[in-house]
Amino acid sequence: MKLACLLLLVCGGCLASEHKHWSYNGDTDPAHWANLEGDFKTCSTGKNQSPIDIRHEAVHDADLPPLQFAYQPAPLRIIDNGHTIQVIYAPGSFLTVGGKRYELVQFHFHHPSEEKIDGKGHEMVAHLVHKDADGKLAVVAVLLDAGDANAMVNTLWAHLPAVKEKEMVDAAASINVADLLPKDHSYYSFTGSLTTPPCTEGVSWFVLRQPGNVSSQQVAEFARHYPMNARPVQPLNGRDIRAGR
Question: Catalytic residue positions?
């Protein structure tokens, strides 16, 4: 599958009409994904699937390199792709970790959070999807709790497209994804997969340990469109989960 499509699938669907019949409920829910198409088999056979429940007994303290965010303001490009609300980010913003540079491609939301910490979920999660020069993916997960409103999320919700799968562009509505990040950038690190079909593995995951905030009203507005768009947590299968001190 082409990289462009994988970048869209990690957030919940291709803009082209490929693979649109999977869902989060009914006969096309996560329990059935592997049987929907041949290249979805990894959803059940993969050994490094995401999301996961980050249990303290499986976490190892490590001297992890810092996440160095170089995010810039960008004009708003937003789409309701039928599985989530996604923002396509202009080139020029990137993440550097351990000497590797990953360009920010897009970010999107899940409700409730897909990742859990010691069995505890969060109201939402934002997945910030990046790729390096070789096309390998890295996702920063920002867990979101109900609290103060986030001004950038207000801008996003004010520009939600009225029609699914139709991108809305507003160059006058500048946003900066850095406004989603909490002050503390310490993180958990592990190897995982796309959280949507085809569940491709080899994705580097960085889950921020400190949640960010959105308001209850902002959560409710997203839930009005997507009451539940989270894949259940997957087995660890002995994976190494590292946490920065």
Answer: 83
